[in-house]
Structure formats: C-alpha cells, structure tokens
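Q&A log
Question type: sequence-to-structure
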Amino acid sequence: MRRSVYVLAAAFTAMLLVAPLASAIGPGGWDRVGVGVPPATSSLNGAVYALNTQNPGVLYAGGNFTSAGGNTNAAHIARWSGTSWSALGTTPLTGDVHAIAYAAGRVYAGGTFLNAGANANADFLAVWDGSAWAPFCNSTVPGPAFTGNVNALQIIGNTLYVGGSFQNGAGLVTADYLVGCDLTSGAASSTVLTDGDFSGSVYALTADSNGTLYAGGGFINVAAIPEADHVAAYDGSWHAMGGGPAVDSFVRSLTASATNVYVGTDSVDVAGIANADHVARWNGTAWSAVGSNSAGTNGWFSTTTTIDALATYGSIVIAAGSFQNANGNAAADGIAYFDGTNWRPIGSNGAGNGPLPAHVVALGLTGGKLYAGGNFTTAGGDSLGRFLAAYALRLPDASIAAGTASPYVGNNVYSATGAGEGRSVTVTRGHSVSSYIRVQNDGLVAASITVKGTGGATGIAAHYYRNGASLTTAVRAGTYVTPILAPQAYVVIQLVVTVARPSAATATITTTIRSQIGIAPDAVRVVVKATG
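Response status: OK
Response body:
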C-alpha cells in the first residue's frame, strides 16, 4: 500500500514528549494533530508522505519534516501516541521517509535518506529495533543493499517486500524495483527469474487476505506477461489482473479489504469500464467500478486526477490525491470517501470548498479517526492543521434553534463548551419556553450519539422530549443514546425550560453530545432570563 498503513505496536525508548494534545476541530470538521512549540505553531514543520496506523492508538508519520511537537530528534519519522509526539532515538534521519512498516517490535522505514543512525550501509531502507537505526536486507555485494529510493513496503508472513526506484536490490541482478527480505535472517530474494522482468518503478504495494502481493507502478510486462502492466499480482509467480492490459497508466496507490483490492491510477476506463476512472476494484477475478458520477454515466473523478493514497474502513473506501471539484462538488478537493453507493467529500474548509487545499499523499486510520498527510498548509480552515490532520469517523455536531421557525445556530461549530452555539431566551415567571436541539452525525460511518444535559438554577429547570416522549431522566443522567444515525442524519430533541414563581434571575442550560471515547464532544447552550 502506497505510503500506507501497517501494523505498528511497540514501546520505544526515546520518548521525549514536548507538546500536549490540543484538539481544535475547525468549522470544516478537521482537527489538528497536537501542536508545536510554542503552542501557536503546527506540530509538524514539513510535509507528510507516509502514515502507519493499524495498531489502535498509535500513529507513525514519515516525511520531510525536521521536528514533531517541537522535538528536533523527531526528524522525518515520528510517533504520535494520541496525546503527544516522540522521536525514535536521538539520531534523527537525514532524508525523507516515504514508506513505513512494522513487525515484531521493529519499525521499517523506506525513503530517500542516507546513513540512517550514522551507519554508512543504511541507505534508503533502515530498521528501528527500539534502541537504534540499522541497515536491513542483506546485500550480496559490499555496501548498502539499496542504491535508489524506496517508495513502498509490505509485510506478508515473514517477508518484507520493498518496492522503489532502485535496481539490483540487495545486490541481486534480477531484483530491480522490487525485492523480498526475510524478517528473521535478512536474506534477500527476487520475485522474478530474469533481469529486466521488472521494467519500471514500484510505487505501491498491498496484500489481500489470502496473502497475495499486489504491486503497482510505472512498469509494463512484468515477468514477460503482456497484460501485466502497471499493476500485477504475485503469489510465488506473477499474474496479470484480467485481460487487457486493464490499466494503461501509472498506479500510485493500492489497498485491500479481504479479497477486494482497490487500485488508484492515472487511468480512466479501467478494463474498459466507463465508470472506472482513477479508482477501480479487483475482486480476484474481475474488475468493477467504484461508484460513478451523479448521472451514472462516467467516473466520479476528473480526467486529470491522481490518486496517491487509498484506505478502507469497513465498507467505505477513502481516496486522496490531487483533484479538484470532483463530480462538480466544490468541497471534493484532494480527499473523498465512497460509502458503498456514492462518493462524498470529507468536511470542507469551513466556507464550502475543499478541506485540504494541496496534495494529499498519505492516509491512516486509528482511534476512531482518519488521518491525512501531505503538503497542505491548512486543514478545515485551521492553519495549525498543516501537513497532518484528523477527521473523526463518528463526529457529533449539535445545533440549536429558539423555536420551530428560527434558524439553527452551531451547525459545523464544534465546541465542548457550547461557545458560538447558544441561544438566549426571556421567560416570564410561571411560564415555559421551547428550544430545539439538532443532534447530527457529521462523521463518515453510522453512529449513535449520547446526550447529557446540565445546568439550571432555583426555579428554572430543563425538560427534554423527542416525538412527544420524555427523555428528561436519561438526558440528565447522561444515558440517553440516539438511534443509529447515518452520516449527515440527525434527530431533533425538544428542550422545554420552565420558570417557576419565584425563581433565580438567570440560568444556563448546557446540552452536550458525544459519539465515542477519544473524540471531542460538542455542546449547545440556552441562556435563560426570567422576568415578571
């Protein structure tokens, strides 16, 4: 998988943590990932090219940044714990990281760097064992195993597959652009028998649930198979994917879900399918389109699109790269997701345009969040979301109206205190007033949302209803849970505030909604003024 997601889990010794988590979901729904030092700077100071997030709660980022959370030892690769950034050791890498993989407590990084850990043989690929960086993959000739860029990594069983722009990987004359490395011994092996059987760079690798390797890139005729252009499957021998060739231009990203393989390509009309533009599905035997434009007559993405990263979560597919106004949608810039039926934008910049206004090249999922990395300098309208940002898969959004004919305030405002999401009402003592709270799921997957109400004062009390049924006891206890809401779906809860005689002069009623642990809640407020 291109700049992809691999399982990462380990306790690392170099844990210099500088900045605490500073969640700040902007009006476009995107959240910064920590902060730098001082707090008014972004957490990373350069582009992100690789993310690894398959171990829940742990994220590794690689790129051309030279500090993370203000820690200059966290150069080009860094660890995010969910609350803070840390370095992998005190000898930072000196060049860009484009791919990350993990196995058995060890982190493998590939890219353009030289001399990792000050080791002259650790060029383009290196392994972190928890205490130091070292070369990996035994070369059959003196010197480094790699002499060109590493673009992609994929682990299958006990083998690390390394794809890139190098030739003669690990000194093997047949291992151009792709080589296998045994995780235990470091022994290298080629996937082809004849020099020249790989004719161009590998940009992406992934594996399906059967352990079949898929490679994508700029090559043609892998292993002398005429149909094996730009993407091919390897299970001990190489295979074309359908007749064709099905793909006639660069493949820049791959991901797999069970036996479905999703291909991100510069090609349109993959396998002759008019709707299969830039993203297509291979199920092991046949190609199919992934959605279409609104008319159902062509692909969703524009002709000039590049898809540089793909990821899946359940039934949804997420694509990122370089595209603008996909399907004519102003918010569909750089990143989008397929919900099983339709493609949709992911948030916005807060003003109706795309959320990440530059190239997005890396995706990862962990802790109920989607992470996106690239060279963008704002995320969801937040200038501190530079280069790396997160979007909650289940994102609560509360808004409030003072009456049935009043507009809602607080839509696309995410504040745990209700700031900017309030109404003021005046009530004559002995009477009541109704407000209406819209509880919406702004995330990418279906979610139920918990509602809790607090506040009041002497003689001023809040009561909650939905469809005429009282929810007051459960909402006050924080145990009321909405039905499961599809993305962008909502329920409306009636908030009735009663003011007795006598009563306090004012009160504030706060209603907080939460979708999942680890995701910031949202809240709305009603400020009540009693008269008479």
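Response note: The domain at 396-531 is CATH 2.60.40.1510 (Immunoglobulin-like).
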